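Continuing the batch. This is chain 6 of the set; chains 1 through 5 are on the previous pages. Same settings as before, nothing changed between runs. Recording input and output for traceability.
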Amino acid sequence: MDRPWNRGYLGYTLTRHKRPKLTLAKASLQHLMQRVREILKRGRGRNIRRVIEELTPVLRGWASYFSLVDVKRPLEALDQWMRRRLRCVIWRQWKRPQTRRRKLRGLGLDAY
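Output for chain 6:
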């Protein structure tokens, strides 16, 4: 036997509050992150729109399954992490420094 906040059930777990809240189990979050890594790893040389099209059904299904979650902080951290990974895919596609400079200036960054 273990405490409810140390256990997971169907991808959910409870928090250690006086009135427990429903949150994500760490294993389910790690599983999603691994799935996103697999999709983004193959993003080299592909159009970013295709990568997002492949990522969308996974995220939409995951979000609808975990829509009952009360604690939003892990979801915000996941959002930040995925945006950073997508920026990394774009950055890898801009291979040459000249391309990176031109694209960043095109997005509104001032020349230093």
